[in-house]
Structures are given as structure tokens and as C-alpha cells.
Amino acid sequence: MIKSLASFVKLVNKNNVFLEQVRYASQALPQLSSEKYNIHRKDFGRIESSDVDYFRSVLGQDRVLTEESDVLPYNVDWIKNCRGQSKAVLKPKSTEEVSTILKYCNERKLAVCPQGGNTGLVGGSVPVFDEIVISFSLMNKIIDLDDLSGALVCEAGCVLENLDNYVRERGLIMPLDLGAKGTCHIGGNASTNAGGLRLLRYGNLHGSILGVEAVKADGTVIDCLRSLKKDNTGYHLKHLFIGSEGTLGLVTKVAIHCPVLPKSVNLGFFGVKNFENVLKLYKSAKSKLGEILSAFEMADFDSINFTAKNLKLPNPISDYPFYVLVETHGSEETHDGEKLTRFLTNEMESGLILDGTVTSEPAKMQTIWNLRESIAAAGLVGGYVFKYDVSIPLKNYYDLVPILKKRLGDKATKVFGYGHVGDGNIHINVTVPQYTKEVSSMLEPFIFEEVSKLNGSISAEHGIGFRKPKYIHYSKDQSALGLMKDLKQLMDPNGILNPYKVLPDHI
Ligand SMILES: Cc1cc2nc3c(=O)[nH]c(=O)nc-3n(C[C@H](O)[C@H](O)[C@H](O)COP(=O)(O)OP(=O)(O)OC[C@H]3O[C@@H](n4cnc5c(N)ncnc54)[C@H](O)[C@@H]3O)c2cc1C
């Protein structure tokens, strides 16, 4: 019986400097998800030695993991909240292999859990019971790059950072960027419709993904892998697979549009008095920086202070109630730098910015992005963190942080908020010494009810996964849920694809 697990994940910051961080806050394993959340196993087949023999005949000995210690990392999620009980991990290398495996699993009614980089934050990437993990880590080939149109075609298991490095050498960038880019896969990004730091400028993946190849539960390969910008030939089926978290099909290849690598990148980091001024600053940035604005992020004092302390990272300016990070992507260094510096000077005069720094030096930009991108991991150090990822109309964007502070009192070590203001998306983290049902029940469904009252979304970018199906109705109407159920029935009648995720049991 394995009692502990030490595993490390390499996270990469925006400027390609690796941050090796402890993946799990302590050595203890999380409780089994099925027990923690009182879930009952559905009526799926159970994997037998004859099944393992079959998988080995398709994939070979090495690409079928069954040793408990080999399988364990695939059973535990990044945040160390969920733990499944899978007995087998399969590592296909081609679409044909994925198709063969799924056809077999469907006939045997064996449930599967697709897994990319396992950086998902809602428990969708790990099994709940004994679902077979299908890992995409060996499907990592770049197939084609058209550097004129910017269309990149690659396999689902390509790590986002590797793709970014590859296209950068050819004068392009990936249209998305996130703190987990050193580990997450493009197939995982597509399946979660990941947002991240560049969404304000380059839009979401429903726009930049040009085509998808996916495998249905019965093994049928759906080829929507076009790399055209315009293709109005019937239903836009690729969208079914973008953001459906592995419940409608397994994404095997992606075609994605890569924008041109900006010739000039500038970054400003500002101290701000209150949240009202953060919003005023956002309005001003949109109007004064216009076409070059690529990110507008905010973090409150506790987010930055907690991260700087826990991960021993430098904060380039002193302490302020709120921090704002403004990035520009443009084509003319002098013009862009002057524009951002003028913005800083003007807004210091207006009082919206109390202090700040503007830089285009890669090392300095890297220090600032490091601090921002590490907030997600900082909460894991020395305790447990309840994470919420919600969209809220901007005027109420920060309301929930003081509400939760009041509600939880000294039951929480910290409650802090940070996120993508430009997208109306705030991440709320509640840190506690350890997970308790008491704090959990003070937070849920309360937080989702509040989000719903504010006309927000209970999941802005992380998805529904395992953690939120029973709360999905706070953001999705019954008619929409009914259609989701019909689609699931059509695409996966035996329900073998990522069960217990996304769809609530009773619709
Ligand atoms: C430090 C940190 C920062 C993050 N920042 C952001 C952020 O800014 N924005 C954001 O949106 N997310 C963010 N995330 C969450 C996470 O990184 C994203 O959801 C990411 O897209 C997940 O990719 P992955 O390859 O790790 O997928 P996994 O975690 O392995 O899987 C995620 C979901 O997709 C399914 N899946 C994976 N691969 C496939 C496939 N090929 N076919 C079908 N289904 C599949 C899984 O079953 C699961 O339901 C962050 C996470 C961390 C740890």
C-alpha cells in the first residue's frame, strides 16, 4: 500500500524560465474522491487480465501501465483534491491506436478517463473509480506549420510550451498562454477551452482552433481537422469537442491559428489604492493603449504577498491593496514603450496608479510574470486551497472576496482574489491548513448561489469536471442541460467517456 507521493511539476513562466514547484503541498495522499464526495460506481465493466492482454497486444508491454506505483500519479490531480482508483494507464501513439482502444472499451463497457498534462483544476483529468486512463503524453508530434497563414497542426499530447517555442522560432506565437504551459497539453487545452493570459488580445479557443480530429466512444474517427479560417460547410462540429472535457470524444489532433510574434512586448506593474480604481484603470488602458493592449490582470494584496512569501519571489514594487499588470504586444518598440510609459505617468498624476514600473527587458518582465503566474501554486504550500474560477460582471467582480472573508472568519488562513480583469474572470482562493467538510460546506453551494445572483458563471475557464456537475444549473438553463444530455447520449450511448464529469446525474 502506497502511503505517500512526492511528485514535481515543471511550470513555466511567460518567458520560458522553469519554475520547479512541489506538486503536492504535503506528502499525504488525498482521500479517494468516491468516499470524499460519496459517489456510487456506475454499472461499467471491470478490467480483467484478458483486457490488459488485449491492450498489450495493441500497444506493446511498455505502454500499458498496471503497477500501482506507476499508475498512482495518474490517479491524483494537480491540486491534490481528487484521487481515483484506476488500475491501468494506456499510452497510445496514434489516432488509430486510440480508436482501437475505444472500440474495445465501448464493447466491453469499460469506462475511460482521458488525460493530458493533468493540470486541470476541477478534477476532470483523473478517474473517480477504476476508469482506464488514456494518456496522450506520447502523441506529441508537430505535423505541419504554415508560417504564412499561421496554421499549426499537431497531435493532442504536444506540451503547450514546446509548441510556443517551436512557433516562436518561426515568427509566431501560440494564441494562448497559461501558468501551466510547461506541463499542459494542447489536447487538454482544447478539451477545457482554456483561457489564460492572452485571451483579451487573441480571443478564446473556439475562435483560434481551426480544426479538430477526435475519436468517438465507439472508436469512430471524426475528421474535422481543417486549417482554413473560413469553412461554413454545415455544422461546426469542432466546437463539440472544444470545452467538452473529454465527455463527447477524445481529441487526437488540433489545428490552431498562431498570431505573429509581436516585435515589441512591454509590461507594466502598478500599485492601486482600491478595486474601484482598478476598474477605472482598465477603462483607461482600453482607450489609451487600444490595439496594443494584450493583458490586463489584477491581484489583491494577499495574492501577491502570500505568493512572494511562500515561494520566496521578489515583488518589484512595495505593498499596495491591489496590483495591476498591463502587457502590450505591438510592432514598434519605441512607440509601444512610450505609450505605456505615458500611460503610467498620466495615471500616476490622476492618482489611479500609486506606484509602478514599466519594462521591456526580458529578465524584468520575467520576474513580474513569475509572481503573477505563481499565485495559483502558492496556495498549495503548507496547506489546502479551495479554488474557484468564476466570471462576474465587472462592477461586481471583486465582491465575493470580502463576502467570503466575513463568512469564513478565522476558519480560513487567507481569502484572496486575482485574475483576468479584461475577461471578467476572477480566481478566488481560500487557503486552509487542511481540507475540512465544514469549510467546504460553508463555501459550496454558497459561492455558486452568489455568482448566480450576480449573473455570473460558476466556471469561467477551468470547466465543470468532477467538482461542479451538481452546481452546473446555477449557470445553465434546464433546456440547455437537456440538449447536453441528448448530445452525450448520441455521441457516447454507453457513457464510457469520462463518467461522473460535467453532466449532473439528474437532468
Ligand atoms: C498553475 C496553473 C495555472 C493555470 N492557469 C490557467 C489559466 O490561466 N487558464 C485556464 O483556462 N486554465 C488554467 N489552468 C488549468 C489547466 O492548466 C487547464 O485547464 C489546461 O487546459 C488543462 O490541460 P491539461 O493538458 O493539463 O489537461 P488535463 O488536466 O489532463 O485534462 C483536463 C480535462 O480535459 C480532458 N482531456 C485532456 N486531454 C484530452 C484529450 N486529448 N481529449 C479529450 N479530453 C481530454 C480531461 O479528461 C479533463 O477533463 C491552470 C492550471 C495550473 C496548474
From TrEMBL:
<dbReference type="Pfam" id="PF01565">
    <property type="entry name" value="FAD_binding_4"/>
</dbReference>
<dbReference type="InterPro" id="IPR006094">
    <property type="entry name" value="Oxid_FAD_bind_N"/>
</dbReference>
<comment type="subunit">
    <text>Homodimer.</text>
</comment>
<dbReference type="InterPro" id="IPR016167">
    <property type="entry name" value="FAD-bd_PCMH_sub1"/>
</dbReference>
<keyword id="KW-0285">Flavoprotein</keyword>
<protein>
    <recommendedName>
        <fullName>D-2-hydroxyglutarate dehydrogenase, mitochondrial</fullName>
        <ecNumber>1.1.99.39</ecNumber>
    </recommendedName>
</protein>
<feature type="domain" description="FAD-binding PCMH-type">
    <location>
        <begin position="82"/>
        <end position="261"/>
    </location>
</feature>
<keyword id="KW-0560">Oxidoreductase</keyword>
<dbReference type="InterPro" id="IPR004113">
    <property type="entry name" value="FAD-bd_oxidored_4_C"/>
</dbReference>
<dbReference type="InterPro" id="IPR051264">
    <property type="entry name" value="FAD-oxidored/transferase_4"/>
</dbReference>
<dbReference type="InterPro" id="IPR036318">
    <property type="entry name" value="FAD-bd_PCMH-like_sf"/>
</dbReference>
<dbReference type="InterPro" id="IPR016171">
    <property type="entry name" value="Vanillyl_alc_oxidase_C-sub2"/>
</dbReference>
<dbReference type="InterPro" id="IPR016169">
    <property type="entry name" value="FAD-bd_PCMH_sub2"/>
</dbReference>
<keyword id="KW-0576">Peroxisome</keyword>
<dbReference type="Pfam" id="PF02913">
    <property type="entry name" value="FAD-oxidase_C"/>
</dbReference>
<comment type="similarity">
    <text>Belongs to the FAD-binding oxidoreductase/transferase type 4 family.</text>
</comment>
<comment type="function">
    <text>Catalyzes the oxidation of D-2-hydroxyglutarate (D-2-HG) to alpha-ketoglutarate. Also catalyzes the oxidation of other D-2-hydroxyacids, such as D-malate (D-MAL) and D-lactate (D-LAC). Exhibits high activities towards D-2-HG and D-MAL but a very weak activity towards D-LAC.</text>
</comment>
<dbReference type="GO" id="GO:0005739">
    <property type="term" value="C:mitochondrion"/>
</dbReference>
<dbReference type="InterPro" id="IPR016164">
    <property type="entry name" value="FAD-linked_Oxase-like_C"/>
</dbReference>
<dbReference type="GO" id="GO:0005777">
    <property type="term" value="C:peroxisome"/>
</dbReference>
<keyword id="KW-0274">FAD</keyword>
<dbReference type="GO" id="GO:0051990">
    <property type="term" value="F:(R)-2-hydroxyglutarate dehydrogenase activity"/>
</dbReference>
<dbReference type="GO" id="GO:0071949">
    <property type="term" value="F:FAD binding"/>
</dbReference>
<dbReference type="InterPro" id="IPR016166">
    <property type="entry name" value="FAD-bd_PCMH"/>
</dbReference>
